Amino acid sequence: MNFFRSFTASLGRLLTAFAAMALASGCAGMQDVSIMDMGAGTEAEDNAMAINQAIELCHEQGGGRVVVPKGRFQTGSLILKAGVCLYLEEGAVLAASRELAAYASYETDKDMSRYDSGKGTANSNCVSDKNWCRALILSVKADGSSIKGKGLIDLGALRDPHGEEGLRGPHGIIVAETRNFKMSGVRIKDASNYAILGYELEDCCFKNLDIEGGWDGIHMRGGRNILISYCCFATGDDCLAGGYWKGLTVKGCDFNSSCNGIRMIMPSEGFTVRNCNFHGPGRRPHITSSERAAREGGVYVPSMLHAIVIEPGAWGPAPGRLDGIRIEDSRAEGVLSPFCLTLGEDNTCGKLIISGYKATGASPLALSAKSWGTSRIGSVVIRKSSFSFAGDPEEGLSAKILSLPYDRWPVFPSYGAYFRNVDSVLIDRVTFTALTPDSRPDILTDSVRVFRRRR
Hints:
Elements: H1 2-25, E1 32-34, H2 48-60, E2 64-68, E3 71-75, E4 78-79, E5 84-88, E6 92-96, E7 104-105, E8 134-140, E9 146-149, E10 152-154, E11 171-179, E12 182-184, E13 187-189, E14 196-207, E15 210-212, E16 218-229, E17 232-235, E18 240-251, E19 254-257, E20 262-266, E21 269-274, E22 277-279, H3 287-296, E23 308-310, E24 320-328, E25 331-333, E26 340-343, E27 347-355, E28 358-362, E29 367-371, E30 377-389, H4 397-402, E31 417-434, E32 443-454
């Protein structure tokens, strides 16, 4: 009897441990379904039906893993369901269909118009536009869904003459109106538009992703309590973009772009960047610019713009408040500017804190925090940081710039930092260095009520 009790207790502990491991993996239900069991094959022209049947089966049985084994599987759109983990084994490749008709769109009855941008331009991004909202993988109202493994999602750089800019095709992955989505480990390459597009996410995590090529890497509009960690980006457009975030932490990521590292186009609160690396020039071309140059016989030179740029309203109305923005223990090299904040008239801004930030060889724009209208930034604190910039030896350059309207400034009238319409600025143990002689001052302020500098 004692043996039986001991054995039963040990078995119970073992089953409890397995259950805990399954829950920790984010793949609830403890069930694996191989796509091969549903008829998928490496010779098939489109495995979407088989893979979607596997997803549906897992979902109906309480969740689990849909396993993509080693091999290359071409597919059209896949629809993830709640509690289902799409798991790509090492050597597995999900290859996006070359047929535009094979892609489904994100559709919702919820009013998502606050996230629309670029209306009336070649970059119109509207949720109501089914063409804009196509993707290879869609996870919509699918709480607890995930994409994991060590495989590759090859999006194939598909072009669409009826898409954005008369060029872009479907997105890679759309996650929308979903809680507890997790994505980790996989590689994504050659997105036909954004690699990952998110709308109204909550308690979600993106970890250890390798995103290469395409336009934006992760573009998220509306997010609460989001973590992006230890991801590597080498994108043609912005690595991370979007806005209306509340509690977004980005840590341990590597950003390389032929546009911006991080670009916030809608206001956010509680945004932290920690221990990240930004470096240019871009390894992958900015597709729009490079293809335009090829058509027009010009020369395309890859470069990286801002490491971090915050510009709510840059792509259309984006009212709201910015606050609690922190840049900590990060590095930038070979970028246009290490940091840029431009506040719109529809926005207010509380506190910005930059600490432990080291930027080298920025060219040619100073770090800046400003508004050009009447809106004001509350507080800017920069401490324990160092910034070096390519200098400009032109005599009298600062006065020349200041004599022009600000919208005609080629660079700032200071080489290191520029502040305008800020209530309080504190510069504490920060160095600004020009790598070649520069006649401009290192810091210049305009309409700053309190300015303090500690050496």
